[in-house]
Amino acid sequence: MDFPVINYDAAGVDIGAECIYIAVPPDRSEREVRSFRTFTPDLREAASWMLQCGVKTVAMESTGVYWIPFFQILEDNGITVFLVNARQVKNVPAAFKTDRRDSKWLRNLHAVGLLSTSFRPEQAVCTIRSITRYRDALVKSGSRHVLHMQKALSQMNVLVHEVLTDITGVSGLAVLDAILAGERDSEHLLRLFSKRVKASEEEIKKALIGDWREEHLFTLKQSLASWRHFQQQIAECDDQILHLLSEYEPAPLPPQDPPVSSGPGEPKQPRTARQAMHDRDRNKVNRLKLIFGVDLTAIPAIAVGLAERIFTEVGPDLSRFPTANHFASWLGLAPNNSESGGKVLSRKTRRLANRLAMQLRLAATSLSRGVSYLAAYLRKMKARLGAPKAITATAHKLARIIYTIITTKQPYDESVFAKQQIRYQEQRLNHLKREAAAFGYEVVQKGFVS
Questions:
Q1: Of 104, 196, 204, 402, which has the most beta carbons under 10 Å away?
Q2: Which residues are CB-neighbours of 359 under 8 A, at least 6 positions away?
Q3: What is the mean pLDDT of each run of 10 residues along the chain (450 residues)?
Q4: Contact partners, residue 409, CB within 8 Å, separation at least 6
Q5: What distance in Å separates the CA atoms of residue 177 and residue 171, rounded to the nearest whole number?
Q6: What is the Cα–Cα distance from 407 to 316, expressed in whole angstroms?
Q7: Which residue(s) pair with 263 in the sheet?
């Protein structure tokens, strides 16, 4: 069966690490398929050849990161790029598979309109997203060095990490610096601990007595220096993200409180690196509020890091998603109904490696001890479906709330869920009455006596 051609000026591109293959309509060039190297001059030559062939739209398979340079060159030349999922184009109708056949198959599918493009935010958002993802890699690398420090301390039986919840806090860093400086007296090290440490003085003294070994002290020194190096890089990434956010949003920032002077003509500086991080987070919240038009951090479980991730993954404009259902489906949080013969075979969500969906699931997990409507919803779903499905259902609801307040610019209002909460409480009360009646009891609702 022949499908009608919809995109007459369509081309297909098969991307590789060293070479790309481009297929254009047969009547546009003597050579229907050409190959180019992946060097920048060759990619620009490929774009020029496509323009000469009258190509206006291109289907390109997203393979690793190899597609990014050519994608950007094509966009700069005004060619619309359809970045397609490999699952849509994997079945090439041929006895054997080659890059040349793949490019022609992509063009044929795109010409008849059988391919849908993947969502990719605008370039300004992608710029910030690249730095944010790099920052995530730095955080993971820094956390590995924390494990190295804990291992070195354990090998010396200096159990600082047993009496401190975080050895990279103020007390922990002060103790580690003193140990590396040669201090071994537990009495002196004890005075470096904050009064807020919950462990007793006797327990702390015992934890500071160990078998000091030169090789483990060397490992501890190297790991601490590496961790501080990564923290400095993370701070630089945060500063760059703030700079790019301020450039993205041209609207003026809300008025800030004047800096408090610590001396004549000297502004007050943050006392610790943690305080400086809080200041950067506060500035991020202000900028993201200007960009989105609403404060996403007002939603329970949505911290500044998740609000930043929402911006870097989808941007402030969700018009590409017609409804909240489309947005939740793109995240892989909506039920994926599989039907056959009029019967629903499965309702499981699709398996997608979506960074934003993973963060929403983590945010939903943090609601387990909350008092908000969303926290009550999570506990209700846990009782009904179990923890894994309840977390996905709560993440789904978070995604719908985020979509609604971004598209409508209406701030988050917990009272909207009051009617739903009252209805849920009535359902629970009726359930308790039925359970009590099954055992021959009666539930009596007592009121307050004035």
A1: 402
A2: 306, 309
A3: 80 91 91 93 94 93 84 92 79 70 89 86 90 94 94 92 88 92 89 87 89 93 96 93 81 43 49 72 87 91 92 91 93 82 77 89 91 88 92 94 93 80 82 90 67
A4: 293, 294
A5: 10
A6: 9
A7: 266
What six digits make up the tokens of 289? Answer: 């509020």
342 plus 385 within the same structural domain: yes
Q: What angle do CA 67, 360, 140 make, to 5 degrees?
A: 65
User: Cα-flanking dihedrals φ and ψ of residue 22, to 5°?
Assistant: -120, 125
* Domain match, 408 and 422 both: no
Q: Do 426 and 405 fall into the same domain?
A: no
pTM of the model: 0.79
In degrees rounded to 5, what are phi and psi of residue 352? -130, 140
Distance CA(143)–CA(151), nearest Å, equals 13
Structure tokens at 114: 């059988």
Show the tokens assigned to 41.
């001059």
327/332 Cα distance (integer angstroms): 9
What's the domain range around 27?
10-111
Q: How many CB atoms lie within 10 A of CB 443?
A: 12
CB of 240 closer than 8 Å to CB of 283: no
- What residue type is 450 in one-letter code? S
Parallel/antiparallel/unpaired status of strands 57-61 and 10-14: parallel
Whose tokens are 């709330």? That residue is: 401
- For residues 207 and 133, membership in a common domain is answered with yes
Number of domains in the chain: 4
Strands 57-61 and 80-84, by their bridges, are parallel
CA count, 13 A, side-chain hemisphere, 127: 12
Please give the angle made by the CA atoms of 80, 354 and 109, to the nearest 5 degrees: 35
What phi and psi, each to the nearest 5 degrees, are found at residue 172? Answer: -60, -45
